[in-house]
Write a structure and sequence with these properties.
This protein has four domains: about 55 residues, no CATH class; about 100 residues, Immunoglobulin-like, CATH 2.60.40; about 70 residues, no CATH class; about 100 residues, no CATH class. It contains one helix and 30 strands. It has a five-stranded mixed beta sheet with strand order 4-11-10-6-8, with no helix packed on it. It has a four-stranded antiparallel beta sheet with strand order 3-5-9-7, with no helix packed on it. The chain has a four-stranded antiparallel beta sheet with strand order 13-14-20-19, with no helix packed on it. A hairpin with a 4-residue loop joins strand 13 and strand 14. The radius of gyration is 62 Å and the shape is rod-shaped. About 25% of the residues are buried.
């Protein structure tokens, strides 16, 4: 057997002590601890130190417990307590979590059904649960949160885990909808019906000159009858003209001539023939008219109720545009858009117009007259038989 000196024995004992302490330290780092009575150290805690026989100091690693939750946010589908939110918290680390405390930061719409997470520890692999219900009595969105705080074994590390809550409000009152009133459709014809009768209308647009024989301004009054200057008719007998006077044959009796006329022994003398080329026709007295040069103006035929503007027949101006027209061999319509209906005004068209179910009828047009529209609101009919007339 080999002999050890005293100094060798001391050195060997010191080395064995170092290995023992190192082993205990590694166990602490791996989450292990020595059983009581089985070594010189019963537990190595976070941040603690141990010394070996040579007074060498060894420090353990800090414990960091890790907690997870099955859902970090929950949105309640409706304001109902029949669908609570369940949060499951699990310790997924190799270290225990201690001094667990939960806090519910919510309004009156949330309530806690159960909670087993307020505890002194949650060891590795263990779970705890928090169940929250929701019942909203307002129309506002309700927000909330749940927080769980915990620490490591010696309290040197504080940590927390948060879950957010959201809950909808109740549906608001259904707004009352006032139905849009439907205007009563007036059947039949509109109040403005353009006649099929026509008139020749002249404009103020000159188109030339003409020599006219229609002047009857003579010493003896006369009136132009469209062809000559008419003086009058013989009261009886046979009319004649001679020596600057108009005559007629007398009647029998004591008063051969009409009152105011004179008898010259053979004929009754009446009005002086003081005018241009006097003559007698059908027992009437006449003068030949003098001539004049007259300005001529553009003219045409237009339906009664329209106005000739030197180009076409103006029907009128629609209050709104764009106006439309329709026509066929039997006539047509000129229509403009109806105005919006309001609860206080159920009339879609202006007075003297009528609603045909689509728009306001401005006018009914006669057959064989072509309507058209300019600038969306000016309504026309094409004029006929244009001429240049004095």
């Amino acid at each position: 057997m080999r002999n050890f000196t005293s100094s060798n024995s001391k050195a060997l004992l010191a080395n064995l002590t170092r290995f023992l302490i190192l082993g205990l330290t590694m166990d602490a780092m791996l989450g292990c601890s020595a059983a009581p009575g089985q070594g010189g150290i019963s537990k190595v805690t976070s941040g603690s130190t141990v010394t070996d026989a040579t007074n060498s100091t060894i420090t353990s690693l800090t414990e960091r417990p890790v907690l997870t939750v099955n859902q970090v946010q929950y949105f309640f589908p409706a304001s109902s307590g029949n669908a609570p939110a369940s949060f499951e918290i699990t310790n997924r680390s190799r270290y225990g979590a201690y001094d667990l405390s939960s806090a519910l930061n919510v309004g009156s719409a949330y309530s806690q059904i159960s909670n087993d997470c307020n505890r002194s520890s949650l060891l590795p692999g263990e779970k705890c649960h928090i169940v929250i219900s929701f019942l909203n009595t307002t129309t506002s969105l309700q927000l909330g949160s749940v927080a769980v705080t915990f620490s490591n074994s010696d309290g040197s590390i504080q940590n927390s885990l948060s879950m957010n809550l959201k809950g909808p409000g109740l549906p608001g009152p259904t707004p009352s909808v006032t139905p849009t009133p439907t205007p009563t459709v007036t059947a039949g014809v509109g109040t403005l019906t353009i006649s099929s009768d026509t008139t020749f209308q002249k404009s103020n647009v000159a188109c030339g000159t003409a020599t006219l024989r229609d002047v009857c301004n003579f010493g003896t009054p006369s009136t132009f009858d469209g062809a000559n200057c008419h003086v009058g008719a013989a009261p009886f007998g046979t009319a004649s003209v001679a020596n600057g006077f108009f005559y007629y044959t007398p009647r029998a009796g004591n008063q051969p001539c009409a009152a105011g006329d004179s008898f010259d022994g053979s004929k009754c003398r009446t009005t002086p023939a003081n005018g241009n080329r006097p003559f007698v026709h059908n027992n009437h007295f006449y003068f030949t008219p003098n001539t004049r040069v007259a300005t001529q103006f553009k003219g045409a035929e237009c339906p009664v109720g329209t106005t000739y503007d030197s180009w076409n027949c103006v029907v009128g101006d629609a209050p709104r545009g764009p106006a439309t027209e329709s026509h066929n061999l039997y006539g047509g319509k000129m229509i403009y858009p109806a105005r919006p209906i309001t609860p206080t005004d159920l009339t879609p068209c202006e007075q003297s117009r009528y609603f045909d179910g689509k728009g306001c009828v401005f006018a009914n047009t006669p057959m064989n007259w072509r309507p058209f529209i300019i600038n969306q609101t000016r309504l026309y009919l094409e004029a006929k038989n244009y001429s240049c007339a004095p």
